Each structure stands twice: as structure tokens, then as C-alpha cells.
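User: Reviewer 2 asked us to show a designed sequence for the structure in our supplementary figure. I'm pasting the C-alpha cells here. Could you produce the per-position amino acids so we can include them in the response letter?
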């Protein structure tokens, strides 16, 4: 019962059974009604014919001359207000009165064996004749017709069950094939061909799985590139640390102070990678906390400038903030975004970095080399710009912009990458 094929089969069979039962009941009723009407019409036609006969001596003679076509028909002769013959028991005062008035009678009376059709006609010379036919003869005919109807309905039901089974198999096969394709996707296969579907709904499912297949392949490709990039970046400081450690162990290093500074620098690079990776992991967690409150964006920008002024002075970069605005957001998380963008801008190699505040926005502007038009769309993908520029100009871990984008998304805002008309990159964060 849990499979679609079984449910389709059972539902179709139930509908077929209900249809057969309803059709059978209606057919039997219609057959009975039709046979009753036909039998009465024949009985009435015989009565009309008998009414044209000349004066008869008795009901027996009437029956003999009638050569009745309907088996079991009983006959009575009414003469001088008295009925004689087998059908006389059904002739009552009402029938006699109507016959005396010259009226035809078409009625139903109850006899010893049940209901009886009665047809009476006034005849010539004052005689009247009465024909009676018990409905048991009609019931026998209905029984024969019912048997044939039931046989036909039974054959139809068997055909419906067979058709339901084939239909369910045909309807469920594309779904079964699609489920098998989905399981192959889940097992790690890519480029899985989807089964052809004849119905719109199943075709939509197959198309969605094909799109998922393509998206997974693209995502996994980006992940592989990212991991290769990260492994390359991690290997460099590790190689330096190992080399100096081996040199120290072999007693080949005299300037231990210089070695210590180098080791500190390389371990800081490793620490930066680890912190960025942990930050990404926290961003993916459901319990990542966001605390909204009114924030003075100009004050926040000033704090960022104060924190990074020392680094900017070391690099010979002028770091400033201007403008004003306010927003309802998480100041700590927004500060984290701005720190990442400012660090990225200082690394770009320009002479100035500006934090421009307006209403609900903060833009980080630099006068460095900027970004190509093809860089703007993938700018916030993990390691995208890092992989493109690591052999051209100074780059970070390749995770900073991705972290910034995920943080802004959690804040309910937007972040956009662009180029300044006068040269340099522009990253704009909108919150609140």
C-alpha cells in the first residue's frame, strides 16, 4: 500500500467495482422496467385484438381463439356483469364498472402468487374480455437477463482490473526510474541521465533532478578547486616552518631571532586560515547568533578606521571615513564585515581607502587595480578571486569576501562588488 503502483491499482479497481455495482443495479432496474412495459404493451395489444372478436360462448372458447402469445396468461369473459374464467378472480367492482361504461382498463392487482397485470376491454354484443398475466413470468425473464448482464459486468470488471494493473505499472515506471536516478545522484554519480517522462509532473521532477545534478557537479567542482587552493596556501607556511625547524634541529641556524620572526609570520598565516575556516563553519550553523539594535554607522566606521590606522600607516595608505547614517543591525557582526573589507582593500596596493557612510549603507572604496567586469559576479564565491589573482598580486586566504557575504546575508542585508569610475574597487554593504 505504500507504493504508488499498488495505490493506483487499488484505487482503480475500487472505482471499477463501484462503477460495475452501480451500473449493474441501474441496468437490472432498467431491464425490469423495460420488460414490464413491453409485457404490458403485448398484453394490451392482445386484449385489443380479442375485443374485436364476435360474441363468444365462454372464456375457454375466448382463450382458445386468442392463441395467446404470452405464456401463463389467464383469461376471463365478462357477460351480464359476471366474470367467468381463470382471470375472474382479478375482476372487481371497479373493473366491472369501467367495462360497463365502455372504458378500457389497464391495472395491477394482487393475486395468490403476487402482482398481476390486468388488461380489460369492452367487446362486441355487450361482452368484455379480461387478460391477466402474473409478474412471476416477467421475473423469470428478468432473471435470465440479469444473468447475462452480470456476466457482461464481470467480464468488464476483469478487464478493468487488468487495465488498472497495466496502467499503474506504466504510470509508476517513470517514477521508479527517476527514483533510481536520484539514488545514483545520492551515491555520488554525476551526469546521470534522467528517464523520459510522458506526463508533465514526472517530467518536471526529472528536470529538477537534472538541474540538481548540474548544480551539484558545479558546486563540487568549486569545492575541489577551493580545497586545492587552500591546500596550496597551507603547504607554503608549513613548508617554511618545517624547513626552519629542521635547520634548528641540525644546528645550522645562527640568527635565531630572524628564524623566530619568520616562524611567527608563517604561524600567523596558518592561524588566519584556521580562523577563516572556523568562521565559515559557524556561519553555516543554525545557532549562529544575530542581535539587532540601533547602530550609529558613522561611529562604527570611525572605530574601524581607528583600529586599522596603524596597519594603514605601515603600508603607506591613507584610511578615512566620511558621511553619516544609522541602521537596525548587529554592530559586532557588521564590524566583522567591515574589518574584512578594509583588510582586503589595504592589501589591494592602492594609496587611499575610504569608508563612505550614507543612510543604511557603508561603502569601502580603494584606488587599487580594481576588478574586471568578469570578477563582479563570482566575487563572493569561496576562493574565486584568490584563485584568479594569487600569482598576480597580494591575496589573502580566499575566504574573506565569502565570509563577508554570508555575514551580510545573516544580517538580512545585501553586499555588492563594483568599480569606482576614477579607478579602484568599491564594496557596498546595505543593512537595516
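Assistant: Here is a per-position design you can include in the supplement:
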Amino acid at each position: 500500500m505504500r507504493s504508488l503502483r499498488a495505490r493506483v491499482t487499488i484505487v482503480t479497481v475500487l472505482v471499477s467495482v463501484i462503477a460495475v455495482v452501480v451500473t449493474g443495479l441501474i441496468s437490472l432496474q432498467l431491464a425490469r422496467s423495460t420488460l414490464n412495459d413491453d409485457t404490458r404493451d403485448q398484453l394490451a395489444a392482445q386484449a385489443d385484438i380479442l375485443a374485436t372478436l364476435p360474441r363468444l360462448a365462454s372464456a375457454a372458447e375466448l382463450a382458445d381463439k386468442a392463441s395467446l402469445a404470452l405464456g401463463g396468461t389467464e383469461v376471463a369473459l365478462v357477460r351480464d356483469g359476471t366474470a367467468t374464467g381463470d382471470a375472474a378472480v382479478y375482476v372487481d367492482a371497479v373493473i366491472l364498472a369501467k367495462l360497463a361504461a365502455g372504458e378500457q382498463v389497464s391495472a395491477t392487482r394482487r393475486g395468490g402468487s403476487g402482482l398481476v397485470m390486468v388488461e380489460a376491454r369492452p367487446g362486441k354484443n355487450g361482452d368484455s374480455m379480461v387478460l391477466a398475466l402474473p409478474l412471476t413470468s416477467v421475473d423469470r425473464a428478468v432473471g435470465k437477463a440479469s444473468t447475462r448482464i452480470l456476466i457482461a459486468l464481470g467480464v468488464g470488471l476483469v478487464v478493468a482490473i487488468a487495465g488498472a494493473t497495466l496502467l499503474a505499472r506504466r504510470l509508476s515506471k517513470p517514477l521508479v526510474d527517476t527514483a533510481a536516478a536520484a539514488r545514483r545522484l545520492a551515491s555520488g554519480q554525476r551526469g546521470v541521465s534522467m528517464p523520459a517522462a510522458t506526463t508533465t509532473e514526472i517530467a518536471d521532477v526529472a528536470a529538477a533532478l537534472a538541474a540538481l545534478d548540474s548544480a551539484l557537479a558545479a558546486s563540487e567542482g568549486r569545492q575541489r578547486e577551493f580545497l586545492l587552493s587552500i591546500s596550496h596556501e597551507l603547504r607554503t607556511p608549513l613548508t617554511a616552518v618545517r624547513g626552519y625547524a629542521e635547520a634548528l634541529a641540525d644546528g645550522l641556524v645562527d640568527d635565531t631571532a630572524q628564524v623566530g620572526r619568520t616562524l611567527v609570520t608563517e604561524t600567523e598565516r596558518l592561524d588566519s586560515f584556521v580562523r577563516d575556516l572556523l568562521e565559515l563553519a559557524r556561519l553555516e550553523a543554525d545557532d549562529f547568533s544575530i542581535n539587532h539594535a540601533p547602530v550609529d554607522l558613522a561611529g562604527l566606521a570611525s572605530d574601524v578606521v581607528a583600529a586599522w590606522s596603524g596597519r594603514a600607516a605601515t603600508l603607506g595608505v591613507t584610511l578615512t571615513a566620511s558621511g553619516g547614517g544609522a541602521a537596525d543591525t548587529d554592530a559586532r557582526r557588521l564590524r566583522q564585515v567591515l574589518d574584512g573589507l578594509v583588510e582586503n582593500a589595504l592589501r589591494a596596493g592602492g594609496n587611499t581607502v575610504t569608508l563612505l557612510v550614507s543612510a543604511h549603507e557603508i561603502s569601502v572604496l580603494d584606488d587599487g587595480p580594481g576588478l574586471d567586469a568578469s570578477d563582479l559576479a563570482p566575487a563572493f564565491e569561496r576562493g574565486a578571486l584568490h584563485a584568479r589573482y594569487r600569482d598576480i598580486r597580494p591575496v589573502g586566504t580566499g575566504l574573506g569576501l565569502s565570509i563577508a557575504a554570508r555575514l551580510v546575508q545573516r544580517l538580512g542585508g545585501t553586499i555588492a562588488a563594483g568599480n569606482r569610475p576614477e579607478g579602484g574597487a568599491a564594496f557596498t554593504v546595505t543593512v537595516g
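For the response letter, you might also mention the following. The two ends are 52 Å apart (CA to CA). The mean pLDDT is 80.
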